[in-house]
């Protein structure tokens, strides 16, 4: 299983500490940009935008990203969210309720 391989790499290469930057995280086997951004947001409370195809499609329809943008969708989203690039948190305009 890939999880065990990643755990071994983190233990041996990073002395048991999960890397705190995107570039290092995506070097781990099976870790893509979305997973790496989730780790940054939820484990380290760093500003990041985990983007999957659904987020990208909705963002495109709202005009937040350009579908033909070359590069990662989360980078394009960040550049259009001034609160995000300024280091603040982006609060949802519709409250979440269960």
Summarize the structure in words:
The chain is mainly alpha-helical. It has two domains: 1-48, Hypothetical protein, domain 2 (Endonuclease III, domain 1, Orthogonal Bundle), CATH 1.10.340; 49-89, no CATH class. The chain has six helices and no strands. The chain is elongated.
Beta-strand share of residues:
under 5%
Structural class designation: mainly alpha
Oligomeric state as shown:
single chain
Unreliable stretches (pLDDT < 50, length at least 5) are 84-98
Which CATH top level class of the largest domain fits? Mainly Alpha
The largest β sheet comes out as: none
How do the SSEs run, as a string of H and E? HHHHHH
The CATH architecture of the largest domain would be: Orthogonal Bundle
Q: How many independent structural domains? A: 2
Rg on CA atoms, Å: 15 Å
Q: What's the CATH topology name of the largest domain?
A: Endonuclease III, domain 1
Averaged pLDDT: 76
| CATH homologous superfamily assignment of the largest domain | Hypothetical protein, domain 2
* Annotation field: number of helices: 6
How many strand elements?
0
